[in-house]
Amino acid sequence: MWPGKIAIVWAVLFATAGADPRSDIAAAYGRSSRAMALKYVDGILSIRAPGYQLFDTDGVMRDNSVERSRLAFFLGSGLRVEEDTQILTFQQEGTVARAKVRYQTRLLQKERWLHLETVCQDEWALLGGRWLLRRTKMVSQDAANKPL
Fold first, then answer.
1. What is d(CA 135, CA 48) in angstroms, rounded to the nearest whole number?
2. Domain map of the chain by residue range?
3. pLDDT tens for each residue of 30-68
């Protein structure tokens, strides 16, 4: 009798995350991009797992204790923020997924647009029935200023 109940509990837990991990993770990227547009730092950080790690293009881990203030400063310097995210590659093995992603971020400042194109290798984990971003390695980042 117990094995059947355990199987049902497992089915419910994994069903919570959705049947298609790629779609769930794409939706999380979309929520984060909408939070960027709203300049809502907590919304941006909400897709990250506890202990999230961010590595820059040189492989140096960034200090998470300053991430909130860094994002708030960056977003506060703009009049408007737009961000698009594109999953370039995706692979999943059980409760871990890896996605190579291109972020295109545009920050409208007083008389110019700052364009950032960032490519990252992200690792996601299924935790508590939700896909959360566990690790990001920035592969490349290009910036350009464009007048209005």
1. 8
2. 2-147
3. 999 999 999 999 999 999 999 999 999 999 999 988 989
Closest CA to 39 of 80, 1, 3, 11: 80
Q: pTM for the whole thing?
A: 0.83
Q: CATH code for 2-147?
A: 3.10.450.50
Q: What is the dihedral of CA 66, 71, 77, 79, to 10 degrees?
A: -160
CB atoms within 10 A of CB 57: 13
Judging by DSSP bridges, how do beta strands 48-55 and 96-108 pair with one another? unpaired
Q: Is 28 helix (H, G, I), strand (E, B) or coil?
A: helix
DSSP, res 64: G
